[in-house]
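Field: COMPLEX_INPUT
Field: COMPONENT_COUNT = two
Field: RESIDUE_TOTAL = 758
Field: MODE = joint
Values follow.
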Amino acid sequence: MAEIQPFQVMEIWNRAKELESQGKHIVQMQIGEPDFSAPDPVIAACSEALKHNPIHYTSALGMPLLRQAISQHYRERYRLDVPASRIAVTAGASGALLTATGVLVNPGDEFLMPDPAYPCNRHFVRFFEGRVNSIPVGPQTQYQLTPELIAAHWSEKTRGVLIASPSNPTGTMLTPEALRAIIETVHARGGVAIVDEIYQGLTYASEFASALAYSDRIFVVNSFSKYFSMTGWRLGWLVVPQDCVREVESFAQNAFICPSAPAQYAGLAAFAPETTQILEERREEFRRRRDYLLPALRELGFSIPVTPQGAFYIYAGIERFAADSGKFALDLLNEAGVAITPGKDFGAYQAERYVRFAYTRSMGDLREGVRRLREFLCA
Amino acid sequence: MAEIQPFQVMEIWNRAKELESQGKHIVQMQIGEPDFSAPDPVIAACSEALKHNPIHYTSALGMPLLRQAISQHYRERYRLDVPASRIAVTAGASGALLTATGVLVNPGDEFLMPDPAYPCNRHFVRFFEGRVNSIPVGPQTQYQLTPELIAAHWSEKTRGVLIASPSNPTGTMLTPEALRAIIETVHARGGVAIVDEIYQGLTYASEFASALAYSDRIFVVNSFSKYFSMTGWRLGWLVVPQDCVREVESFAQNAFICPSAPAQYAGLAAFAPETTQILEERREEFRRRRDYLLPALRELGFSIPVTPQGAFYIYAGIERFAADSGKFALDLLNEAGVAITPGKDFGAYQAERYVRFAYTRSMGDLREGVRRLREFLCA
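Field: COMPLEX_OUTPUT
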């Protein structure tokens, strides 16, 4: 546990709360949670289940109907054949990552990951006494790993890679070709790929390519928290190779018994056409926000060399303003009332040069945030 | 993972389902889940929250109101002062055990546990590469560890003990004196005690003694699944020493983000007087079932030398009937349509001599089960 760092952003959060309790208004651009709640049909499905169904344990891998619904979602929306038998419903993406790493990581096993990356991904590997080799990535590779980087860093101890597309904090995606080449590189070395696709659905430019199009020998993590706006419910899923299903089931039985049943009932309505309509409107709203915030930040002087194509983050270089992004974020909060996340939360490589903006709040908030940023930077 | 055994009872479950699908009626005495659903006020609290509250992430340690409600429950019902700050709300007792072991267990650390015990408790220690020293216990010590056994088995690698009262599978409890003496023995060696109290509230003879009466330097696991009949919701809690709260919070943030919020809203009503009235009636029903099943099994020839005082299990010796409890359970299912759990699920020590009966089904079912048992044993 000594190596599991607390999120640096907690300092920002706590300070923001303190300021708010003093009556100051804070523009929240640090939050990785959509401002939307679960769509009405999803809430209605849960309410109905509470009325009519006993909320007992479900199968460890989740309700068969929900696993089938996810399989159908892959088929209808992404033209992918992912049998329900390979889908484990989990307690959020957290539960999926815990299951994947619990099953795959033995002490000393090394996993290659990009730096910057979502910090918990690193921690899950550490929980099970694996080692993370964080490979510095920059704008040259869209802040993503490449087959060349993987080949160059592969060692005897390397068990596999953990990649994310779209990425948190950068919002960048792997092209279909890049994704396929990475998986081939890993497989050629007898390794395993864990692919974090929790922002699937929240993409604004190119079509989303799931790694499942290229291999059925990978672990894919997904979530109902982002595109489906079901954060507090704690519902996600994990796609695994067919011959790992029993081991995954055994881990899930022991570690969780099952995912929360009310959330599973709610999830059954997540793929209904009326839900999809709501979610697609929200995606358009996220796109509007990105299309506003991205040029505004660039105009202010932040360096954003790679246009983010998904998720709801912009990873921005602050080299024109400051040398220490932690101090920059704290000053910005204290002096201008804008909360953002310093780069340190996502790794070590050039972390002091970057901050992450989240566009998870309304256009009005974003405009006010940009106004305050302009004032702060020109002061 | 290779050392994480699947539950043996799964074979029984699958066979039972198979028989049911052939139209046979099976008396279920293998189920560790109460037949009651969440009390109406609990369901109503969740439905109301779904109407009025956005279901967003909560604090990693749970909603402050729920932590306070649990603290108040300890104060009002058990006259114990357990501050809310030491209480972490978790995804069931599973989440509590995962958190406790995640924080406490380093590779090679040894934990002492009784054999028989709840199998997942063993597995949680193994997940984090700890070792379990399972100490054989029998009726002489109420199937519980004693200070003498702990002292005799303590080694340089021993980090602590994991005990349960009431115990699954035996239903036996530690007396207040025994509990206090165990904790003192562990503390005298600089060790840590994890105490599983998930059957708190479901006791039928002596008053329940929480280990929290004797130390604030222990980890206590609890659950909304048993006394509160909230199985599928996946809600529990963990009480930790004050100076471990930050580490526990960091683990919970990383591993879970937070417990499922709809379940937390529901849990807020779990301690209301109208809920308690329902739950106390259910406890009386469990007592009636125990008071029927226990003498009936003894009369049939099962050996039950220690009267179970809590939970909803009877651990019964089959030495008068058979030498292999796994085969006995399967024969009983196939020939008489009664499902029970073989001793192997709970350890290795004399496991072939024992089976576990659960009284989680109606009096009618229990009577039919006993009738079928009589027929089977006399055939």
